[in-house]
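Marked as duplicate of an earlier ticket. Keeping the data here for the record.
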Amino acid sequence: MALDLASYGVTPAGTDAVRPFSVEGLDVRGRAVALGPILNQILDRHDYPAPVARLLGEAIALTALLGTSLKFEGRFTLQTQTDGPVNMLVVDFSSPDAIRAYARFEPEAFAPGGAGEHGDAAALLGRGHLAMTIDQGKHMQRYQGLVELDGISLEEVARRYFARSEQIPTEVRLAVGRLFTRREGEAPSQQWTAGGILVQFLPEAPERMRQADLHPGDMPEGVEEHSIDEDDAWTEARSLTGTVRDDELTDPDIPVEELLFRLFHERGVRLYDAQPIADRCRCSREKIEGIFQSFSEEEKAEMVVDGKVVVTCEFCSAVYEFKAEAV
C-alpha cells in the first residue's frame, strides 16, 4: 500500500535526485537517491553489456550519494583499476549537480559463455583498488582514499572506506534494475533504474562511534579477532537499512521519501531539500586544445589521420575534429 506523502506535507523529489535526511532518535544522517533518465542517457551512449551496465549503475548511484555531500565547489571522483573483466570504472561528480561516467571492459569476457556474462559485481571487478578523490580546486590540496578490491561489492567498498578513512560507522545499500515495456506495434524496450541509501552514525559523543578493528586477513592462529559492543542505536539503524530490498530501491513507483518513512517513521525521520543531478560532461574543444600542448611535435604528428585529428570523449562520446595545422 502506497504511503500518502501529501498528508505529511512532503513532495517527492522524483528520479535523478538525492534526498538528504536525518533520524534524530537514532543519531544517524544519510542520503537516498533514485536514478532514471540520466542513468539511461549515460548507459545508452556506450551500449554496454547488461552486467557492465548494472555495475556502472551501482557506481553512479554510490557517487551521487557521496558527491552531493560536498559543501564546496569541487569534484568527487570514484575510479577502479582492477584485473577483472571490467578493469576500470570512472564516475566523476562536479558540484553542485553534474555527473558523468565511463566503464572499460574486456569484450570477449561478455561473449556467450564468457567469464563475465553472469558474474556478480565482485567477480566483474576482480582484484585491484578503488580510489575516491576529492578535489577542492587549484589552490587546495586534493584528498584521496584507497580501498583494496579483493572480491568485495561496491557496498562493502563504501563501508570499508568510511571505517578506515573517516572512522564513521556506515551502512550502504545499492541496487540497479531494468524495466521492460512494450507498446502496441513496437518492439520491447528496456529502461534502467537505480537506487541507493547511505546511513551514517554521527552521535554527539565520539566514543559511541567506536568500531571493531577490521580483520587483517593474516592473524596468527589462536589470536582473537578484535570486537566491541556496538551502540544499540546504530545496531537498530543498520538493521533497518539492511531490510531494504533491491526492488524497493529500483521501483519508480516507490519514492525515496516513502521508503525512508517506511524505515524510520517510528524514530522521527526528517527530510531536507532534494538535490537534483544532471548528466553533464566537462569536456570542451578548448580543454582538448589545451591538452594538445602537453604533447611533443612527434606525438602530435602521429595523431594526424587524413589531414586531421579526431578526438572522442570517453564519457559523453562527443567527437571533436581538428585540422592538422591547428594541432
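See parent ticket for discussion. The chain has two domains: 15-205+233-279, 285-323.
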